[in-house]
Each structure stands twice: as structure tokens, then as C-alpha cells.
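Handout, page 2. Input:
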Amino acid sequence: MLSGIVDRLSMRLYFNKLYTTRAKRPPLKAIVLFSRLEPERLKEVTHARKRLKRYEVDVSPLDQDLFRIDLSRDIRGRIFEGSLLLDTSEKGIWIAFTNEETYFVRHIAEIFFDRLYPAVSRLYLNYYQIRDFMGEIRDAYRGKTTITNFTLKRRPKKWRLRFAPSKDRRGTLTLWEYDSEEELLTQSRDYRLTIDRLIFDIKSEKGIVLLQASITRKGLCKLRFGDFTSFYEHVVLKAIHLGMRWKGFYDKRERTIEDGEIKLNPFSIVYKGNLEQPQLLGLANRLSKTYSCSIVHGGNPYFVANVCDYDEGSSFGVTALGNVVTITPIVRGAPEAVWKLANKVQELLGDGEVVDISKN
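Output:
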């Protein structure tokens, strides 16, 4: 589907023409990634990693900082393949564009990039950060109307909800922006909520739809209808700028020693209600599946663990008490690893407000 694109200009012309007409077609996906890896080395890195042994990748330069990636994966003896355009014009950032079907993106492309960690890392956003993202969108489309809804995943917090009707136990929840804060507070009493995606329409003052787009918590932007140039400048780049700010927040947090004194730079994830014993036990079990994890205390109401990211080498202290989870980077503390752990905790406990306590 991308074979006719030979440079940056033809990419813009192709996507502009394709998505400014109403038709049934896969949306354009833009996966925002952090990496300083040279794209030409992707084939070499892929072949060197056991977790990617079922993948084949070819990289073709098209234009300055623009590459075509042909990617395939063997899934139970069946080969699935597709193509992406990799834009590396933003320093330290990769933007992978594709209009392949959702299956290819979800089960081949995203898993491929996830398994390239730490050479490639994802953009993670929680509910509060995506609200900030919408503020950026409003500023970009000044004078226009933005209609927004959030789709969240919910899981019951309390044991009594096991006896509730199955439709109320877990699933998705849609919040419209005008009542989202009140409804979020109500739902958060009984459910662990993590944002899944934000879907929004940009309309003119006359009610004409200018852009239909969305963004997920892992930095996957989608264009369903509208001008590609506008989508690139006002959605993808806004997501990148927000991501760079948060990467800066997570940066330089490893333990240091100054004049013989140990300096720590922790941060906290603050929830609206106290964490309960089943949540803390679940946190211990799930973290142990992703990280090298030593549980110091896993009971109620206090949780303490030492966590090591064995892919990247960073290590952390994680504590939970009341409604606060505190993460203290210890050795290394690379921003990609810190951010990934903060996201993992929120995937397990629900989205909270991330705050800096190192300077308090």
C-alpha cells in the first residue's frame, strides 16, 4: 500500500489525497517512538535478538531521514507482512507511519518495536497527560470546536464486585469531556481505571468536520479523516512535544553521591482513593512477570519492593502506602526505563497523577 511513496513529498501528497475523501479504509497509524538507533542497523539488531527470531526486516532509504521498513513475522507457520514509513527527522524520535490493517500494527509492528527495547522505547501517556494533550489540540485549532471522548479500561477494585453482574465487572468505559472529571471520580471508587485511547473530532464553527483522529496511551496516533499535514503538525508533533517534556521529567533520577551524601530523586503516583490489599498483591505478582523483583513487604497497607529492569539495567525501589506509590530510581535510572515502570504500575493499579517529590 506504500509502494508508490519514494520521498517525503510523495508521502504527504498520498496521505493528503487518501484521507481527505470519505471512504471505507484502514486509518493511518503513526507510532511515536524514542530511539537513537540508526535505522540502517535494524536488520542487524533484529537478527541478534532471540525475541525477534521470527521476524524479518528490510530497510530502504527513501529521502533524507525517511525510510521504508518491510516487516514480516512468522505466527504459527503463517507469514504476516506489511510496510511502514519511518520518519526520523525529529532528533531522538522515530515516527512509524502505516495504513496497514489493525492486525498488522497490533500483532506485528507494535510487538516488534516493544521487543527492540531499550534501543527503541515507547511513548506512554496516562489520563491526566492526555488531558494536557487535548489542551495542546485546542490551542492549535483556536476558534474551532473540539468534541472529545475518552475510552478507559476498568477492573473492579473491591472483592464485593465479583458478585456484581458480569457486565459491571470489567470492560470499557466512555467518558465525554464535559462530565469526565465527575464521572472519573465516581468510577474510581470501585474500579481501577486506565485510559485506553482518546478519540476526538475537530469541527469548524459551522459544524463541518475537519479532522477525525485518536491517540492511545502508548503513543499510537490514528487519522481517520482529514488533512495529513494538519494531523502531522497538530497531533503527531504535539504528542512528541508532550512526550519530550515527560521524558525530561523522568530523566536524571538515578541515585548520585555528592560530597559523600547520597542524593535520591523519587517521584510519586497519587490516587484518589487508598490502595487495597488485593491491588498490592496483584502488583507484586504482575511486576514479577516483567521485572526481576524482590518483594520486601507485600502486605496491607504497606508494599515495598526492589525492582530491576533486566533488559536495560536500571533498578528501583517501589513503595505503596495509602493512596501513594513512590518510585525511587537507584542504579542507572535511564528515563526510558523509569517511564516504562511508571506506566506498568499504572496499567496494574490504574492511572494516577504523577508528581515530583524529589525537591520537596
